[in-house]
Write a structure and sequence with these properties.
The structure is a homodimer of 376-residue chains. Helices cover 42% and strands 14% of the residues of chain A. Chain A is α/β, with parallel strands linked by helices. In chain A, strands 2-1-3-4-5-11 form a six-stranded parallel beta sheet. A four-stranded parallel beta sheet of chain A has the order 7-6-8-9, with helices on both faces. The radius of gyration of chain A is 26 Å and the shape is elongated. The N and C termini of chain A lie far apart (76 Å). Chain B binds a DNA duplex (16 and 16 nucleotides) through helix 2 and helix 4.
Chain lengths: 376, 376
DNA sequence: ATGAAAGCGCTAACAC
DNA sequence: GTGTTAGCGCTTTCAT
């Protein structure tokens, strides 16, 4: 016995030792009661449980994890995706000023993934640890998460791939929505959506079904493989229809927010030459911003200009006209991520080693009012 | 030195010992490099960091937590709130069959709270561990979460209060949306919303502003303080207007789902006597279900019957007619929960002890089409 | 500025 | 079925 406390010590949080002592068994038995109840005589078990209850004993997850080398927790790291504009509108809504862009309207990317992962994790008996990147921590976010989970998913561009590279030697990591970045020195599993396919199909729809030919594409200034893939799809559809397009989007914005989208629309409309028949945005938030601009300038959507987004966030259905967009199966992505992690974990437990997996989830075009498919 | 491995051992995940050995310092120094970088000479620090990097070293959260008695993680336990109906509709949407009740439409209660907590937690440098109750685990959900976090929030009715009672002696716990259950032996902090106020105000609106007097209220069969409070508000408003009401809701359903709401509407309409002018439901999902029923039976909302919900979930805005409801500030609740936990934690660190806090967040009535406030 | 050593609370052989 | 005994990988005085 390593330690003994008075019979009525209450100050510290109770441990196995306290429970063991008070119930007249060894710490091993206390441990068994929790880990493998059937291996303990019923009577003993009840006694231990009773003592535990009245002592307020809760097994320390840390100690457990340390001793058993596993935590029963999966993780998710995501970037601080918050759109300042969406935020403020949401705040206003919550404050009761308006009904406009509701609190709940702003359910973003990461929320969906969280939902998907949580569900799947629960099915497999795991809990989920979530953490958004916070700039300037001494220890990087991943390290913190990585150290507390059995495996985790990372939304692309949250963390330098190099760092993940290192960590993935230690535990399963799946990269979400990202690029399959590095070439070969890459142990990471990877799930992405068919960005190019989606944008291509949407563009084709605009061209063939609505007969539009003067299109303008708004992309992202930063390097982002997903966004680039979308643009690629756009270009392919245009070329296929014999419409000439440059190698670059008509405009690249610094942030993919509503404000930037609104500004982009201004810029595009103020450009000399014929007005575009359709404005295609690399995400929904920008498209929503553009809707504001067009409304303010007295242009009707879709009669005067069609507008499309990408992502299929909830907000895209709430705006008027409802936004035609490409829906990403983000929830499913979360679920698949967990399935992958769980499989990896059991592989490792059995000493198996399989090659990294890379899967692509299909997307679907949501034809709504902003392209002219439904009454505005 | 407790352990030594060959210079090129790669099999196991590296620890402080490995890093220390390879960089010619003690494990204490390695630890300092991460915990308190400035206390280590720059040159030493760089060397250690370099070795760590190429070894793929990540500090074990478990070991850290065990040694330092804190995890840097806050938790949230919530019940498996999933509405089977909403689920299936969502699945259909995700599968691409329809645009109807979108995946994202189904953003529920818990999602909002998660969002709020995550944001606030991040601000304070914490990560968030989330876990929904899974029936029939050997160890209860809470115990698992409790053992891995510094403090946590629990959605009411997820866990027996008694169990929380015990745990709260050990770490801060805040009860969400619940009742202030026990009487005095209660150390738990507690955040609720003004259920009665909201329902009273909504009811008053129906009576005074729309001149309705034949109302029917649909409640919940299970014991639920929140839902009871809503009913209480309803009763108060009726009495204040001189409308007679019984001590019981006109109907109590077994589950607060869309299907049950639809059934409840049937039942109410089939009742002998004059048809009610308004159907008030204890939550949005039931109200949405009722909308289906009324539509199928050819009754117009709000002309023939007004319908109201409670909660303000995203779906409430998407249905036609949009649902008049009482919006709960669920996101804010999550934020407040974290603030409370963080405060408690710092109190404990300083040896302070304060009385349990109980706060009530205000709600607001969202007047939409289903009560006649806007064009349907 | 750095090292030595004592735990943190639990699990997992291995004995009995 | 139950007890003994090593660790698990880190933080943290206390020395130096």
């Amino acid at each position: 016995m390593r330690r003994t406390r008075g019979p009525h010590s209450v100050s510290t949080t109770p441990t196995v030792y306290d429970v063991a002592e008070r119930s007249g068994v060894s710490i091993a038995t206390v441990s068994r009661v929790y880990r493998n109840p059937d291996s303990v005589r019923a009577q003993t078990r009840e006694r231990v449980l009773a003592v535990a209850r009245d002592l307020g004993y809760v097994p320390s997850g840390n100690a457990r994890g340390l001793a058993s080398r596993s935590t029963g927790v999966l993780g998710l790291c995501f970037p601080d995706y918050s759109d300042p504009d969406a935020e403020s509108e949401a705040e206003a809504g919550a404050g009761g000023h308006g009904d406009e862009a509701d609190d709940e309207a702003a359910m973003l990317y990461s929320d969906q993934i969280i939902r998907g992962m949580e569900r799947a994790a629960r099915r497999h008996g795991y809990a989920l640890l979530i953490a958004a990147s916070l700039k300037g921590g001494p220890e990087s976010l991943v390290a913190k998460v990585a150290g507390r989970v059995d495996g985790f998913a990372v939304l692309a561009r949250t963390v330098p791939t190099e760092e993940l590279e290192v960590i993935s030697r230690r535990q399963p990591v799946v990269m979400l929505a990202g690029p399959r970045e590095s070439n070969d020195l890459d142990h990471l599993d990877h799930i992405e959506v068919a960005n190019a396919d989606g944008q291509r199909e949407l563009t084709r729809h605009l061209i063939e079904d609505h007969g539009l030919r003067r299109l303008a594409y708004v992309g992202f200034a930063e390097e982002s493989p997903d966004v680039e893939a979308r643009f690629r799809g756009y270009v392919e559809a245009c070329r296929a229809a014999g419409i000439e397009v440059g190698a670059e989007p008509d405009l690249r914005v610094a942030m993919m927010t509503q404000a930037e989208g609104a500004r982009a629309a201004e810029a595009l409309l103020d450009r000399p030459g014929e007005r575009p028949e359709a404005l295609l945005f690399a995400n929904d938030q920008m498209a929503v911003g553009a809707l504001h601009t067009l409304d303010r300038r007295g242009l009707r959507v879709p009669q005067d200009v069609a507008v499309t987004g990408f992502d299929g966030i909830a907000l895209s259905r709430l705006v008027r006209p409802a936004l035609t967009t490409v829906r990403q199966p983000m929830r499913r992505m979360g679920e698949e991520a967990v399935e992958l992690l769980v499989r990896r974990l059991s592989d490792r437990a059995q000493g198996k080693t399989e090659d990294p997996v890379s899967m692509t989830l299909p997307v679907s075009v949501a034809r709504r009012a902003s392209c002219g498919c439904r009454a505005a």
